[in-house]
Prior knowledge:
Number of strands of chain A: 5
Number of domains of chain B: 1
CATH architecture of the domain at 28-92 in chain A: 2-Layer Sandwich
Distance between the termini of chain A: 27 Å
Strand order of the largest sheet of chain A: 2-5
CATH class of the domain at 28-92 in chain A: Alpha Beta
Order of helices and strands of chain B: HEHEEHEHHEHEHEHHEEHH
Largest sheet of chain B: 8 strands, mixed
Helix content of chain A: under 10%
Shape of chain B: globular
Radius of gyration of chain A: 17 Å
Radius of gyration of chain B: 19 Å
Strand content of chain B: 5-15%
Strand content of chain A: 15-25%
CATH topology of the domain at 28-92 in chain A: Alpha-Beta Plaits
Number of strands of chain B: 9
Largest interface: A-B, 38 and 37 residues
Oligomer: heterodimer
Largest sheet of chain A: 2 strands, antiparallel
Structural class of chain A: mainly beta
CATH topology of chain B: Rossmann fold
Amino acid sequence: MSEEIKWESQSDMPLMAMSLGRMTVNKTGSWRNLRPVLDKEKCIKCGICWKFCPDVSISIDEEDYPVVNLDFCKGCGICATECPKDAIEMVKEE
Amino acid sequence: MKYTIPEQEIMCSGHKACQGCGATLAMRYALKALGPKTILTLPACCWSVIDGPFPYSAVGVPLFHTAFETAAAVASGIRAGLDMRGDTETNVVAWAGDGGTFDIGIQALSGTVERNDNVIYICYDNEAYMNTGVQRSSATPWGAVTTTTPARHFKQERKKDMIGIMAAHSIPYTASASVAYPEDFIRKLNIAKETPGAKFIHILASCPPGWKTAPELAIKLARLAVQTHVFPLYEIYEGRYYKLSMDPKKKPLIDYIKPQGRFRHLTEEQVAEMDKQVDERYDRLKEQAERSKSWFEAKKEK
């Protein structure tokens, strides 16, 4: 996990534009209107939701179930559409 | 779990792509296949925004932001520099959108492939200038609506056959791919990695805001584009030998057209006209693949 980079003055900055940190500082979960919810009974552990997640926010746990990182999930719903068993449902965020 | 694509994750979360972005998926798969020893060059395109503002980056490999028309030329230069230092292992990849490939970047690209520099050029094609607010490009398909080709004057020209232009340069390897078939895309990247010389890969990346569709349909539409023969997946070796990566049974074109707002204005006759264009192109491709069959058989025997 990358931390936010802050400079006290201009002289602390690098001489040219370069990447010093990773975009994981940007919590895109706040963009979300719909939240994916997994029904573990229907899940066949195929990993298709992991494969098609554009936000890299689905990881696979020790029992091979997908886990959604809600800090970054933008709620696009690709996982719910592509799931062959309809095990993922998109529910409205409160 | 048995993974069908490499497990390593080089691109990170938190990038600034829209919901359901196909271009982001394309980058995720490309980095999975190419590995951390990769240098990217990036002209102005959606990805120059997605990567994030200074001093952050989402890709996890060295990335060079270039001027709009120079992605391929900068990649050539980086390759030459690496070769001088004796590093032939690192992959140099020019990563450009359809505007930076089909329109603005074509002269630099043509120069790079003509010199047969050892770089991989990947064009992620979302079929218009999506980053600046959906203006028409020469990759926009016939009939589509953009802000510069509104519904009453929808695009009257066909999509440019970029792969054909690349094949005409007789480069070692050219291929088309789709974000809906990551295994196929990664297989093609592995071939590109092994082949010396210039390689060109054209990947269709769905764009929910530009195509005016729901974000959850992004992958489904990219798959339908292949299944309806609108965007066939094929490879060309040495600019002459064609091979269809898959030859699916044709689904009705309307399945692809209907969910997209950019084609909503088309009448039945116009859809039929588009269908005719699609079939014509696909038949030609099949004919070329048929003619190349003996070459692939001879290659296999070797």
